[in-house]
Amino acid sequence: MIGIHRFMHFASLEYEGEYYMTPRDFLFSVMFDQVERKLFSCHCIYAALLYVAKAKPGPTFFRELGDKVYDIFNKVLLQFVAEPQTGLQIAFKMLDADGNEQVEMKEFFKVELDNCGVNTVLLVHFFGKQGKEKLRFSEFFRFMENLQTEVQEMEFIKFSKGLSVMRKEDFAAWLLYFTDEENNEIYWQNVKDRIEAGENISLEEFKTFCKFTNNLEDFSIAMQMFTVANRPVKRAEFKRAVKVATGQDLSDNVLDTIFKIFDLDGDDCLSHSEFLGVLRNRMHRATRHSRFLEVCEKRKH
């Protein structure tokens, strides 16, 4: 339920008693803790859908649409922003009620419980203006992969402050942005003491790390052997576990940054359980902010 209240907090449009998000609102809801946006009333929601066909599918889809269209798809997409391919496959199969490996609009409506019959951007994009096209998994996966890439690029731009590289201290800020771990002060002290000025992380390195975090549960399973054996995790073992579990090669640059931040006692080993706790906090960012309940109540009055 908290995800719905998060939606209400970021929605910037009201139409006939219903709240709507623009694609810009959706990106903000993923990236930020909160954003001050004025609530506007709109009088014609259908004309805006003409922009959907003009937007080029890909990792700039939401940015191209901006505030030109309205939607209520956040409650669906927020659940999938950080899902690996296996998670998306399971989600698609759950939508595919008749098991024909295609999803029809009527099947998709079952997860848009508050749709109220409005033909939204997401529905037009997936099922066409008449709602008669069928959605295949390859199309659904490509859309979600592009969405994940777009969110990653937007977060990189935000924390790199528009530069082509992200300072390692900014990478630490991104990692810890949605967390309230008791060791946060120690982590920040590690950043100050161990990371030299001018050390940077590229966009591609950042994207690779994000893909790793999207496969966090598989990585956790791969690391259980060290937990059982009560063995500290060294860099080579950590990097190998990432590769085995997710297929991703973390660069030595990113690996060095992770160890400098999260190695609490300076023995060049990692307490992976604590590190995983920080990342899981990030993965649950869409449902963590209970204060949106209070915000939502205020907007009703």
TrEMBL record:
This is Mitochondrial calcium uptake 2. InterPro entries: EF-hand-dom_pair, EF_Hand_1_Ca_BS, EF_hand_dom, MICU1/2/3. GO terms for biological process: calcium import into the mitochondrion; mitochondrial calcium ion homeostasis. Coiled coil: none annotated. It is found in: Mitochondrion inner membrane; Mitochondrion intermembrane space. Keywords: Calcium, Membrane, Metal-binding, Mitochondrion, Mitochondrion inner membrane, Repeat, Transit peptide. Its main location: mitochondrion. GO terms for molecular function: calcium ion binding. Residues 250-285 form the EF-hand domain.
